[in-house]
Amino acid sequence: MAVRIGLVGAGGIGRYHVDQLAKLDDVQIVGVADIVLPRAEELAQRAGGCRAFSSHIEMYDATTPDAVCIGIPPFAHTDQVTAAAERGIAVFVQKPPALTMEKARAVASVINQTHTISAVGFQDRYLDVIAEAKQALVGQEPGLAMGYWMGGFPEVGWWRRRSGSGGQAVEQTIHIFDSARYLFGEAESVVATAQTGLMTHVPDYDIDDSSAMTIRFRSGVLCTIFSACFLREAPGRAGMDIFCRDLKVEYDLRSSVRIRDRRVTREVRCTNDFNRDCMKTFVDAVRSGDPSAIRSPYADAVETLALPLAGERSRQTGTVVRLD
Q1: Which of 9, 19, 202, 283 is deepest in the core (most CB within 10 A)?
Q2: What is the pLDDT of residues 44-101, one digit of tens each?
Q3: Please, what is the Cα angle at 156 between 152 and 160, to 5 degrees?
Q4: CA distances (Å), 129 to each of 44, 140, 319, in order?
Q5: What is the DSSP letter of 74?
Q6: For residues 176 and 188, is the Cβ–Cβ distance under 8 A?
Q7: Is residue 186 domain-shared with residue 140, that is, in the same domain?
Q8: Is residue 261 situated within a structural domain?
Q9: pLDDT by residue (tens digit) across 111-133?
Q10: pLDDT at residue 73 in the model
C-alpha cells in the first residue's frame, strides 16, 4: 500500500520534496499546503494533480496523510510539526528545526509524547563519503578540525534578516555543525566571534558577513566552523579538514573525501544519491513503523541546532557558552 504524504511549503524546498518522492515506489502525494494558494496549486499539479490548500491544518484534516514533508523558511515555523504529531502523522522537516532552543525543545517534547516518527533533513549523514570519513576515524584520535561554508549571498529576502533565518550559521552552515556532531559526538562548549561591514550595499541586512565558532567536544576535539556569505568573485569553500596524529581527512562538501598519511592519499568520490536515501529511509520507517534507521530524528537534530545557537549567544555576550 502506498504511503500517503502531504507537503507543507510550495517553494524551492517543496519542489525538492516532490522530486525526491518521485524517485520512490509506493508513495502518493495527497496534498500541498502553502499560505499562497496559487503556489500550492502549481506544485500540486507538478505532484500529480493532488489537492491544494492555503492551510496546513485543513490539509491534515482533509487528506489524513501518513506523513508530511515540511519545507518552509525558518521564521515560518509555528505549529506545523506539533499539529501533525497530535494527529498521528509522521513528520519530515527541513533544517533548522527552529530558531530558538525553547521552540525546538517544546516541539521535541510533543513528538516524544505522541511517539511520532520524525526526521530532519540533514541529508549529509547519508553520504557514502561521510561514511568513509567516519570509518577512517575509527581508532584515530582527532585533535583539531576546521569546517567551512564560505560562499556568496543567497538572494532571498528572509535570509538576510536574523529574524528570518537566524543567520548563516543557523540556516546554512548548520549542515557542517551536524557533520561535526555525527563524526565527533556531543559538545561541551562553544565560543564565537563575527564580522560585519562588507555587505552595507544590501538593504534590510542584519546578519553577520562571517563568523568563526569554536566547539570543544567532550571527546577533546576542537573544531572551528567558519561561515562567510560575502564572497563575490572569489572562490568559496565548503566541507571540513580533520587532523589526527597519523591521519588527515579532507572532506569536500557532498563531493569527495581524501584520507592522507605521510605516504598515501586515498580519494573517494561521492557516488550515492544521498538526498533520495535520506527521504527513502524516512518513508520506509513510516511504512514499517520502525524508525531505527533514521539518522537524524527530530530530537537529535535539536542537539545540532544547539551548537550554532550557542555560538550566537557567545557572539552576543563575548563569553564561552557551555552546553547542557
Answers
A1: 9
A2: 999 999 999 999 999 999 999 999 999 999 999 999 999 999 999 999 999 999 999 9
A3: 70
A4: 34, 17, 35
A5: G
A6: no
A7: yes
A8: yes
A9: 999 999 999 999 999 999 999 99
A10: 96
Residue with cell 564560505: 150
Indicate whether this model's pTM tops 0.85: yes
Q: Establish if 299 belongs to a structural domain.
A: no
Separation in Å, CA 18 to CA 112, 302, 304: 27, 25, 26
Contacts of 263 (CB under 8 A, 6+ apart): none
> What is the 8-class DSSP label of residue 157?
G
Contact 169, 150 (CB under 8 A): no
Q: Is residue 301 part of a domain?
A: no
Q: How many domains is the chain built from? A: 2
The torsion angles phi and psi of 149, rounded to 5 degrees, stand at -145, 90
> By residue range, what is the domain housing residue 177?
124-272+306-322
Q: Determine, yes or no, domain membership for 17.
A: yes
CB 288 within 8 A of CB 66: no
Ordered alpha helix ranges (H), the chain: 12-21, 37-46, 56-63, 80-86, 101-114, 128-136, 162-165, 168-171, 174-184, 274-288, 298-317
The CA R_g of the chain, rounded to the nearest whole Å, is 20
In this structure, what C-alpha cell is assigned to residue 300?
537529535
Task: Answer yes or no: do 139 and 254 share one domain.
Answer: yes
Buried b (16+ CB within 10 A) or exposed e, 145-184: bbbbbbbebeeeeebbebebbbbbbbbbbbbbbbbbbbbb
Q: Name the pairing type of β-strands 90-93 and 67-70.
A: parallel
- Three cell numbers written together for 141: 584520535
Partner residues linked to 3 by β-bridges: 27
Cβ neighbours, 10 Å, residue 19 = 14
Task: Please list, residue by residue across 219-256, b when 16 or more beta carbons sit within 10 angstroms of its beta carbon and e when fewer do.
Answer: eebebebbbbbbbeeeeebbbbbbbbeebbbbbbbbee
